[in-house]
Amino acid sequence: MSIAVGLALAARLDGRKHKIFCLMGDGEQQEGQVWEAAMEAGHYQLDNIIAIIDCNRLQIDGLVKDVMQVEPLAAKYASFGWDVMRIDGHDMNQVVDALEQARSVKGRPVMILADTVKGKGVSFMEDKAGWHGKTPNYDELLRGLQELALFDRIPVQHLLDKAQHYQAEVDRKLEAKMPKFTRNYWWNAGDTMKVKMEPTRKGFGQSLAENGDDERVVCLGLDISGSITISDFYAGKPDRKKRWISMGIAEQSATSAAAGLAREGKLPVLGTYATFAAARNLDQIRTSVCYGNFNVMIAGAHGGVSVGPDGATHQALEDLFAMQGLPNMSVVVPCDVVETRKATNYLLLQHKGPKYIRFAREATPIVTDENTPFVFGQANVTRLRREGPNFLEAFETVLASTYKNENEDLSIVACGPMVPEAMRAAYILKKEFGYETRILNIHTLKPIDAEAIIRAARETGVVVTAEEHQIGALAWRVSGILTESPQLYGLPFITGAIGVKDRFGDSGAPWELIKEFEVSAEHIAHKAVELMAIKKGLAVRKEEYSSSVR
After folding, report:
1. CA neighbor of 466 nearest in space, from 431, 433, 514
2. Can you say whether residue 229 is alpha, beta or left, with left for phi > 0 and alpha for psi between -120 and 50 degrees?
3. In whole angstroms, how large is the CA radius of gyration of the chain?
4. For the chain, which terminus, N or C, has the lower number of CB atoms within 10 Å?
5. What whole-number distance in Å separates Cα of residue 410 and Cα of residue 9?
6. What is the arrangement of strands in the sheet containing 330-332, beginning at the earlier edge strand?
7. Is residue 445 within 8 Å of residue 324, measured between CB atoms?
8. Overall pTM surpassing 0.70 (yes/no)
9. Is a pLDDT exceeding 70 seen at residue 548?
């Protein structure tokens, strides 16, 4: 709506007479910015705006009236100076008549409230919230087209063949971007090093379910509650429902409300897509939460490109910049479902102050277990010990503070889902080049384990960072630590970075995007090989210099 206001104002300034159409959903009316724009359009009498709200009464978490009531929309928009019409959105005569009437309204913006039924005409989709972000399978596609009487009017097979051809071309291009080795090291591609996968977000829900009996814990829902598993807090536990507060699509207000809850001794937890949990509400996090140092836990769910088909608007690739830059804020990025549960356990009940936990949506490799250490603020060191049937059991992980130098060739410093990729890169480097790799799991980005990073640089001479984020959230922190450390003055070391290269996300399957954005283990290994060549060259030149001096 705000963009429509800008377009309408520009048209007025330029003396143009066209109309601007703005389509919205009824759940969208829970966002405060919508009402700021509604106020502006009414104030400036922008009669070149015709807005339409699809009033299907549903959003991801269920019925709009249950999530956060927005009606009476007609009265609300009228009070802001809009001309309001209500129609049957499935009756094309009413739709056309409303648009004709809207063209003749003078001095007021127009709002058309179109009552609709979600999925109308398809029996298994009709009036069901679950189809909001779900695609039909092949059988459902055919059944739906038949029920809509469209099967014979749409060239279904031609379009499917076209899609298949397009997918083959995408696969070819992605494969061309992948560094090549003597064999395929992709996840579970071989007979050995098998790994189980599970979404990291499930660890978040498991912790809330486990610790939710604490009467201080209050969870705030922001419309994708099931997807990010925050609703596991009360699932099957009706006595907890009173401590479940649905806030709708209203991240800014929910963040400040969480600060108020924390001020009164509660342990509030709120979460949504990381791009909404850490950006849309950044001012409220900074001023309402961090400035007061309130004990609020924010879950940045579905972080990184691996959220997949939702595309650029929903792929958080910048959130860690903002969260690490806030005074008093602690930032944790666990590597798998097990570590996510451990991190949530700690942050929820033991850590005091603002905290941000970031986790992924897609099923990712499980590379830790109950015996793997997790200490807030302390990195883990992981080392490849053998090739075997089980990927997890091929590695050993200890606290960095207890690790003894093994004179490895290089270090890979990683966080979140890039930790499993770093481990797989270490496997590639060992098999292909004989290199020994120290892997640092920096699950706590703030406060970061500077000593572990300094030791890695001092003891191996090569440091590669890996992050599913714009390059810098981890890479720049690591580089800053290394350049400022007196322990490294005069010592040669080389750094490189793997991450998203200053671009927005894209739509695709999660593992396709890992390849497209060049953040796979293969890309990490390729970067490591480049740096190792430089390291060897420096060693040769140093030896040649020493010989000439002698």
Report:
1. 514
2. left
3. 27
4. C
5. 57
6. 244-246, 217-221, 267-273, 297-301, 355-358, 330-332, 444-446
7. yes
8. yes
9. no
